Amino acid sequence: MAMVASIARSNAATGITTCSASHQKERNCGRASPAFFRSPPLAAKQTVSPHKVLCSSFAGVEIKIPSRPLSRQTKAVDRVRCQAAAGGEEAAPLEIPKVETPKETELTKTLQLGALFGGWYLFNIYFNIYNKQVLKVFKFPITCTQVQLGVGLVWSLFMWGTGLYPKPNISRDQLIAITPLALVHALGNLFTNLSLGKVAVSFTHTIKAMEPFFSVLLSSIFLGDKPQLPIVLSLLPIVAGVGLASATEASFNWAGFLSAMASNLTFQSRNVLSKKVMVKKEGSLDNINLFSVITIIAFFLLLPLTLATEGVKLTPAYLEAAGLDVKQVLTRALLAGFCFHAYQQVSYMILSKVTPVTHSVGNCVKRVVVIVTSVIFFKTPVSAINAVGTAVALSGVFLYSRVKASMTKKEKLA
């Protein structure tokens, strides 16, 4: 109040009129002010209360100051209005953006995560469908793998070239560490395509449910991680389920079965290599860029094998000579390559947002979705015993994920 009185006395002396906000509508408080105005200095102990409303006509302009401090959680949008005292024209209000509430933030994150999981599953489904359609008529799985890695290479270069994603700066040490990961990445996808070309999609993915078994085995051999009893017990239904499904699989052949097993071995060896040869993710080398770099290196590592064994086969001239629909085969091969790169990139995006356990459970559900959709789409004959074996194997994968999470949590608390 002392401050208000001081300003009122000063204004009276200089020709400035001060009034309260309640009198603003009744009279015009904006008398002409002098050309030069010097405000009196405040006393040392004077403080200005933020709850007072001052209406002063400085140089013919009236400023209304909110009578309460802004709150971070306020729901209403506070407005600051500058109004000419003489003319009474109201300028456009300056709006302070609404602060997002925690509830809205959580909802947005949940929707984004749901969209990522949906994209992950959808791209995976379409990859398996397009890839199987191509492999049925084009019996060159190494070339198909080369094309899929090539599409990933083109997409990565486009992403960096257009500024859609920051280009990583790779050091020599990082390149040396990434190369073994790229090699097993190329081999893992090659063996998967070899299996998909020989047996049904559903059977390949049932065998690939054995990944936790190979993960435990390789970690025990190369990292010295001795599995505890609950982990070992959780692997039993996986092995039993895959064995039961294999014994009753109509499309079973050893080439397809062993190729899927080799895929499990190479992909899980990648996880072991990741721990043995740590890649420093410095600067812009995050999970997305790391996967892109792995894809590019894998493309060039596989290229000599492709040229030596299958040559250049995916050409219009060769496809036409083989009596194939050139446009259909090329389109589906490119779409398979796009979906292949997209689902793996989305998988890395999900992994950056959730825990490894949640990602593992999501991967288990993804395998179920792929198996069911492939059986429906390709009309794969499935016996009751075969279905039970697949269900037992996938249930074992889910059980392993939960047991692994529980053991990890106990180790952290210990």
UniProtKB/TrEMBL annotation:
Its main location: plastid. Keywords: Chloroplast, Membrane, Plastid, Transit peptide, Transmembrane, Transmembrane helix, Transport. GO terms for biological process: phosphoenolpyruvate transport; triose phosphate transmembrane transport. One of its GO terms (molecular function) is triose-phosphate:phosphate antiporter activity. It is a multi-pass membrane protein. One of its GO terms (cellular component) is Golgi apparatus. It is found in: Plastid, Chloroplast membrane. The chain crosses the membrane at residues 110-127, 147-165, 288-308, 384-403. Residues 111-401 form the Sugar phosphate transporter domain. It holds the Pfam family TPT. SUPFAM superfamilies: Multidrug resistance efflux transporter EmrE. It comes from the Eukaryota. This is Phosphate/phosphate translocator. It comes from Klebsormidium nitens.
